[in-house]
């Protein structure tokens, strides 16, 4: 009987693997051509070697700058015994002994080493950089065919099947998988199985992604269905998408592991953009399903499944089918313009212009020119003739937002154009006739004494009230998700999904700014979030919504009751002065009017 020596890796990427040491030297270094690869920047390409001698194994330096350490001491030439340790870079090896018959038979060296290659510069780019292809012509043809196939693939599962198919066609029976890093790390056990999870070190996967390297390892256990593992990172531009892994039990005789790894890494260079497209396609399908579930479509873009919204959609459709003018009331931020657009899209004027006039944004002395247009020289600064919005809306719909802010003089001008269908541009003596349907919106009480009754009745052929968000709390999660979906499509960014706890937080807030405020908050949070799932912590972190304070004493009141009590208290303190009360409350006077109308306060 004779002593046979082995070295076993205790630390590093090859941890747990062992090599038999005989008269043929085993080289250790950073190069993938070494027998034992130590993927460490402090290690030379050919760092050292070990070989069997009469009374142990000899460790010989191969011209490295940092010799191997034996028991912590640098050694360029040393004889090691069983139990001795030596380190090369971050890899630590232990000398062990195995009994074996000295019958002159050669002991087969187990194929246990890990090899790795740099992905960058070894693939298709090498043709441009070096004028040569690293593989065979057949490899090049296979990759070209893979490109054509992937152009039609729409799911990750299909991509995995194509990877397996092409690897099998070239090198032998193969099985492919995709790994995507999650919050709890790499799901090796879930994807490959628990047995493989014990063989693949997570730091190897991290290094593959961070350093753009592809790895190949051998499987030492005979009870598993593979002898070789190949893994390569997937990228879309600079974005890391995960790792592709292939299991193989045997390799065709015309190839070795380095050839397989090179081909596989090139294949993964093509897979990355396809994975990104497949995931984006899946997100869009999910988004489409969510939009259909909320009742949203392009012709009726009003999101929500609550009874209030169903009733609103029915009323909008009914109004759209008539030729009558429409007035839309409701608090600021409730989506009155969206309702007007829905009326236009569902009316017989859908293919005609939809023109918007914001009455509150235009000075009273300029509104006549903006609405009716003017002739050249009609007033100082009128250097050219100008078509008014009424003329531009001919045949379609003119949406007059904040119509309650029109001055009495402009109310009279609008009433005349509305009744007669004619108007005269500023500076002109000629009447012009138009066919325009009026849709108006206001957040002020419709019986405001400053607004002409005759104009109101001409506009209010149909009256629609936009419901405040607090009256349809159940729609808040769907609205928030809709805004995030629209943002994802508009900015070509990650599709975010609202968690259940985040939905409860949003539903628990009173939203004084209604849908407009909800949209601003949700879009801001989505812009800041780096994860797909929006949590309650993301909302608290935004700082615009605070957790509700608990009330420990006194009778409980609804939010509406508390709001009414506070507004009436401020109104009493201000002696009934509504303008002053609105300033104290921090709201617009029109919003205060609307609140008081809801409370039945008319004087």
Task: Characterize the structure shown.
This protein has 603 residues and is of the alpha+beta class. It is built from 20 helices and 27 strands. The radius of gyration is 37 Å and the shape is elongated. The termini are far apart. About 2% of the residues have low confidence.
Which features would summarize this protein structure in a list?
603 residues, alpha+beta, 6-stranded antiparallel β-sheet, 5-stranded mixed β-sheet, 27 strands, 38% helix
Give a topology summary:
Layout: E1 2-11, E2 18-21, E3 26-29, E4 36-37, E5 48-53, E6 56-61, E7 69-70, E8 73-74, E9 77-80, E10 85-88, E11 91-100, E12 115-118, H1 125-130, H2 137-150, H3 156-171, E13 174-179, H4 188-192, H5 194-197, H6 202-210, E14 213-218, E15 228-236, E16 239-248, H7 257-293, H8 307-320, E17 326-329, H9 336-345, E18 354-358, H10 364-372, E19 373-374, E20 386-387, H11 389-392, E21 397-401, H12 408-420, E22 422-423, E23 432-433, E24 437-442, H13 453-459, E25 462-465, H14 476-491, E26 497-498, H15 500-507, H16 514-528, E27 533-534, H17 536-542, H18 559-573, H19 578-585, H20 589-598
Parallel strand pairs: 3-4, 17-24, 17-25, 18-21, 21-24, 26-27
Antiparallel strand pairs: 1-2, 1-11, 3-5, 5-6, 6-9, 7-8, 7-10, 10-11, 12-14, 13-16, 14-15, 15-16, 19-20, 22-23
Helix pairs in contact: 2-3, 2-7, 3-7, 7-14, 8-9, 14-16, 15-17, 18-19, 19-20
């Amino acid at each position: 009987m004779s002593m046979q020596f082995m070295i076993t890796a205790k630390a590093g990427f090859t941890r747990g693997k062992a090599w038999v040491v005989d008269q043929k030297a085993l080289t250790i270094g950073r190069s993938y051509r070494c027998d034992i690869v130590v993927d460490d920047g402090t290690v030379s390409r050919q760092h050292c070697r070990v070989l069997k001698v009469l009374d142990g194994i000899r460790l010989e330096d191969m011209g490295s700058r940092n010799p191997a350490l034996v028991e912590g001491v640098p050694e360029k030439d040393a004889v090691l015994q069983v139990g001795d340790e030596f380190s090369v870079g971050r890899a630590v090896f232990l000398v062990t002994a195995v009994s074996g018959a000295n019958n002159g038979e050669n002991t087969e060296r187990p194929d246990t080493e890990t090899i790795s290659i740099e992905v960058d510069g070894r693939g298709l780019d090498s043709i441009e950089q070096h004028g040569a292809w690293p593989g065979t012509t057949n490899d090049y043809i296979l990759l070209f065919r893979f490109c054509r196939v992937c152009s039609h693939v729409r799911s990750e599962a299909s991509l995995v099947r194509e990877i397996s198919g092409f690897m099998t066609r070239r090198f032998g029976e193969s099985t492919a998988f995709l790994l995507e890093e999650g919050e709890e790390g790499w799901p090796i056990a879930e994807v490959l199985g628990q047995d493989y999870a014990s063989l693949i070190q997570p730091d190897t996967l991290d290094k593959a992604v961070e350093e753009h390297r592809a790895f190949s390892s051998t499987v030492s256990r005979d009870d598993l269905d593979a002898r070789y593992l190949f893994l390569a990172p997937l990228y879309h531009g600079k974005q890391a998408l995960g790792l592709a892994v292939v299991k193989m039990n045997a390799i065709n005789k015309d190839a070795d592991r380095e050839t397989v790894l090179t081909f596989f890494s090139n294949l993964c260079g093509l897979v990355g953009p396809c994975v990104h497209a497949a995931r984006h396609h899946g997100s869009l399908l999910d988004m489409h399903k969510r939009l259909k579930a909320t009742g949203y479509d392009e012709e009726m873009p009003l999101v929500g499944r609550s009874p209030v919204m169903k009733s609103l959609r029915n009323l909008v459709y009914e109004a759209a089918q008539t030729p009558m003018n429409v007035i839309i009331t409701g608090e600021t931020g409730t989506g009155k313009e969206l309702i007007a657009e829905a009326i236009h899209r569902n009316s017989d004027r859908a293919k005609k212009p939809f023109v918007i006039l914001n009455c509150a944004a235009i000075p009273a002395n300029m509104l006549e020119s903006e609405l009716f247009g003017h002739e050249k020289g009609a007033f100082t600064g009128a250097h050219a003739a100008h078509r008014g919005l009424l003329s531009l809306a001919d045949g379609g719909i003119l949406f007059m937002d904040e119509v309650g802010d029109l001055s009495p003089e402009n109310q009279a001008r609008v009433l005349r154009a509305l009744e007669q269908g004619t108007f005269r541009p500023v500076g002109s003596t000629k009447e012009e006739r138009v066919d325009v349907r009026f849709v108006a919106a206001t957040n002020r009480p419709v019986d405001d004494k400053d607004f002409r009754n005759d104009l109101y009745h001409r506009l209010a052929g149909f009256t629609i009230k936009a419901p405040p968000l607090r009256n349809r709390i159940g729609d808040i999660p769907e609205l928030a998700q809709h805004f995030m979906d629209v943002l994802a499509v508009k900015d070509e960014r990650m599709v975010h999904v609202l968690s259940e706890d985040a939905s409860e937080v949003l539903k628990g807030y009173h939203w004084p700014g209604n849908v407009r405020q909800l949209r601003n908050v949700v879009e801001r949070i989505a812009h800041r979030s780096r994860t797909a799932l929006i949590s309650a912590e993301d909302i608290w972190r935004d700082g615009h919504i605070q957790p509700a304070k608990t009330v420990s004493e006194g009778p409980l009141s609804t939010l509406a009751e508390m709001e009414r009590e506070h507004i009436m208290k401020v109104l009493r303190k201000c002696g009934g002065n509504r303008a002053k009360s609105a300033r104290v409350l921090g709201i617009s006077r029109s919003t205060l009017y609307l609140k008081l109308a809801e409370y039945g306060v008319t004087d």
